[in-house]
Amino acid sequence: MKKRTGVFVCHCGINIAGTVDVKNVAKELSKHQGVAHAEDYVYMCSDPGQKLIENAIKEHKLDSVVVACCSPSLHESTFRNVTQSTGLNPYQCEIANIREQCSWVHKDTEKATNKAKKIVKSIVEKVLRNESLEPISVPVTKRAMVIGGGISGIQSALDIANGGHEVILVERSPSIGGHMIQLSETFPTLDCSQCIMTPKMVEVSKHPKIKLMTYSEIQEISGYVGNFKVKILKKPTYVDPDVCTLCDECTKVCPVVVPNEFDEGLTGRKAIYIPFPQAIPASFTLDIDSCPGLVPIACGKCADVCEPNAIDFDMKPEIVEEEVGAIVVATGYDLYGMDKIAEYGYGKIPDVLNGLQFERLLSASGPTSGKVIRPSDHKAPKEVVFIQCCGSRDPELHKPYCSKICCMYTAKHAMLYKEHVPDGQAYVFYIDIRSGGKNYEEFVQRAVEEEEVMYLRGKVSKVFQNNGKVTVWGVDTLTGKEIEINADMVVLAMAMVPSNQSNELAKKLKIALDKDGFLAEAHPKLRPVESVTGGLFLAGAGQAPKDIPEAVAQASGAASKVQAMFSSDELHQEPIVAAVDEEMCSGCKLCIPICPYEARVFDKEKGIVSVNEVLCEGCGSCIVACPSGAAQQKNFTDDQIYSMVDIILKGD
Amino acid sequence: MDKFEPKIVSFACNWCTSAGADLAGTSRMEYLPNSIIIRVMCSSRVDPQHILWAFKKGADGVFIGGCHPGDCHYIDGNYKTLRRAKLLKKLLKDFGIEPERLCLEWVSAAEGKKFVSVINHFTEEMRTLGPLKLPEEKRI
Q1: Residues of chain B contacting residue A618, judged by C-beta atoms under 8 Å apart
Q2: What pLDDT is stored for residue A525 in this prediction?
Q3: Which stretches of A277-341 are DSSP H helices?
Q4: Where are any strands of DSSP class E within B22-126?
Q5: Is the full-model pTM beyond 0.90?
Q6: Does A115 contact B39 at a Cβ distance shorter than 8 Å?
């Protein structure tokens, strides 16, 4: 049966009509084979415009529609809804992009009009061969997984759980809390970080809907939006948390001392340890990498002194399988290594610290109970130099991006330092001060005016040890003078980088990374909390450097996306998937390794390769691999592409 | 005599290059009008046979635009396109078609400017190269 297509050419005010002779386009298209009706209108997307299409479909008994207007990314759904409202299948409506890809990029009316005609004709040829399709329904498993137990992961998990859905929170280290629990105070309010963080951590541990899996890593992930299967490796802690009474006897006898991660190496910890007093879960972990051996003959002192017998050397790694419908990835950040900037003396000068180490020095729960002292001689530093942009904004040697939080936390550091050492002097080397954010600029001004922090605009060329002092050579670019400061301590505001295993995890999850290794969002402006893969959402500093309120906002955003997804029992996917002509398929299986989604499966009974429509994302690469032409992509068939090419190349 | 105006068929992936072309439009960047885009979901949907078909039907140049390596919306479709295009370029000579008539470029959704320069450059190149003269028996 021959199709009856309607063509609707939009003026878009003068956006299209200013360059393209729209009446001429409509007139010529009305003569095109298969076109039963063509007209133009000033704004097709307006209510009267939509009504006009609706009426024309009924009046001219159209069975398909081409709207020649702006990009399909803008109004495709508008016009498909109009088409659907008249009882037609929405996939019988296609958009010819004559604005972004024609009228806005050409000035010559004749040339632009001719091009517009060809664009519209090519889409008419496509729509004449379009099938009516139904969206593919997929059931949803209404459980979520959150990967990463920092503030973002915690916030997402709590939001989803409070929405009534089960959440599995997976954290690779022995306790949740992330970097925020290490911080002393937070800008710009100077709230005690632990005081605002620990209630949330406790809430996670007590929440009936949250299953907490610490010391666990994602091993494998399969499935698709709404239906993921995740294998989680639960590493053995060798301590039964239900039996451990936190008496701390084991650490007293443990002979091994290794750098304490929580204190950023400023102190040591034993091989059996609790990361910090408020750790959740509150239990000890035996770090197998530093323990001399799990057999009594090697050591076994901890087990000897453990009165409740909580230590179990026979604990084995466990693989746990979970099924979830959505995953929030909140893998957070690490600091760029200080060893990467050799001229700042890391490793050679004990009094050169990074921002997180300085947080631990400031913290009341830190190694010095909040006393700011130099690691080298335990004296209070009278002059401290803070260097911003260490590794950030340096495209030649380090990271090209701004780490966003360093201006603010350096101001906070300087301010808190002055509180601890009132007669001290703080210097800050900066490139620019970026204090965009609620009450942020006022906070920096307070550091400058009230705490008399000396801000020097310029970079530091060298930091070296000099008679017990740490000498800083820099330049003040405002006065043009070279500066030498004989300081007692130097704090480096290192760049934020994606946390060290997020690269591997992203590969397992099939989430793209941006050029700097951060998790890539689906759209930088309009879809900042989604990844391009359906059902995977992003939260926190794993996506880009951000501060706590931004991380929390994104985490809540991701959580509400998850809840919106869980609000219906089924999801609908685009049906423009691969299809196989069973008569033609020879079962050569060439398409199977081509498919990145494992959607092509060999059907032994029929001897053909079929398509799992739910897994198929509709890229079309298997169609090209098919030597017989048995595989076709729905509404992107070879026949359609050939006829589009034909009409584009047809002589005028 | 009028300057030779080549006919160019462009295949652009939905996520990167077509969006990049949209951005060129939104930013009102002008470019040469010789090419018309056929939007496909992924550049890996473009079959070497589509390209040969275009040459057979009178295209002087064929352009394929995909996402940058590592950025493919479908994980690695653009690598498949790259392999296919490289192989096809080797074969084009045997068909009496200059390999330069097939152009594969990575244009992201943020690269409106790159889209413009790629299309302008390719069009100019085809202008210089002149019309594709296929041996008679290869035309239909």
Answers
A1: 41
A2: 83
A3: 301-305
A4: 35-40, 61-66, 102-106
A5: no
A6: no
